[in-house]
Amino acid sequence: MTKLLLHVCCAPCAVYPTDFLLIRNYDITLFFYNPNIHPFREFQKRKESVEIFAENHNLPVLIDVQYRLTEFIRSVVFREKSRCSVCQQMRIKETALFAKNNGFDAFSTSLLYSKYQNHEEIRQQCLDLSKSLGIQFFYHDFREGWKIGIESSIAQGLYRQSYCGCIYSEQDRYDKSLRKKGKDNGEHDRSGYQQ
Ligand code: SF4
């Protein structure tokens, strides 16, 4: 049985990948490492939701309880436009490293479920880390289960957030003038995340 560390960005996004892997007999551990979630109360809500999800499914879960706002902001400041690449890399790298150093056979991420993320870039970042660290990466296009995941997360009563995570995306979500500007520039729209 393959021992797999699954990075989870939030509980709703973890639903479909978790079911997919369990049906195929993977021995999975959930890994919540998301310094990108702000502000603190939102971080707490998403963390608690993942804990509830893990408990309901009787799954082991590892939670990074530290609220790493400063660390995150320092890593994206002055490169806000490319912040998502930095953000994804930060979370995936920590997952791959943890998997490598703690006896896991492979790693993957629920980021591959989201229609609002840059799927191909995430896949490539995972492949590169897999190669450089010498740990297997499990790839699947979990977006195929987009609708199923949403319906199931609602049925399970999981907390569903209204923006991607960082304070920049919170502004994108609620500042109408920014949303319009982003659309006009053809930017990737993460503002409707998890609605
Ligand atoms: S919009 Fe989402 S993916 Fe991009 S930096 Fe913010 S939290 Fe990370």
UniProtKB/TrEMBL annotation:
Keyword terms, alphabetized: 4Fe-4S, Disulfide bond, Iron, Iron-sulfur, Metal-binding, Oxidoreductase, Queuosine biosynthesis, Redox-active center, tRNA processing
Keyword set includes tRNA processing: yes
Disulfide linkage: C164-C166
A GO term, aspect molecular function: epoxyqueuosine reductase activity
GO biological process: tRNA queuosine(34) biosynthetic process
Entries under Pfam families matching the protein: QueH
EC number: 1.17.99.6
Pathway stated in the Swiss-Prot or TrEMBL entry: tRNA modification; tRNA-queuosine biosynthesis
Positions that bind [4Fe-4S] cluster: C9, C10, C84, C87
InterPro entries cross-referenced by the UniProt entry: QueH
Coiled coil: none
Function: Catalyzes the conversion of epoxyqueuosine (oQ) to queuosine (Q), which is a hypermodified base found in the wobble positions of tRNA(Asp), tRNA(Asn), tRNA(His) and tRNA(Tyr).
Family statement drawn from the similarity comment of this UniProt entry: Belongs to the QueH family.
Record-given protein name: Epoxyqueuosine reductase QueH
